[in-house]
User: Fold this.
Amino acid sequence: MTRIKGGVMAQKRRKNVLERAKGFRGVRSKKERYAHEALMRAGRYSFAHRKDKKTDFRQLWIVRLNAAVRDAGHKSYSTFIAKLKKNGFALDRKVLAEFAADRPEIFARISKQVI
Assistant:
């Protein structure tokens, strides 16, 4: 069997790594070894931060809801959510926060029904 050298694929792989590392600072965008290390680290961070983003948004919705709930005359966010569940509303925090920010008339009607 004849010998097949891997030069073409190796060059393609190196080129791909350097293209993906474009925009990185210093040697991390110029040298293949350091670019590969930086890409591996970036991949780990992006995986972890995709999870963190969900937590961050939930916290943001809760803060917005708390402000809107207090303006509507309720005691606190937690009592408002408890009353919502007790009355059988099936709206999540994202939708409620959007109503509170963008459509206050709808949120006012919901908060009146909860009281």
Summary: Helices lie at 7-20, 32-71, 77-86, 93-102, 104-114. DSSP finds five helices and no strands in the chain. The chain has one domain: 7-114.
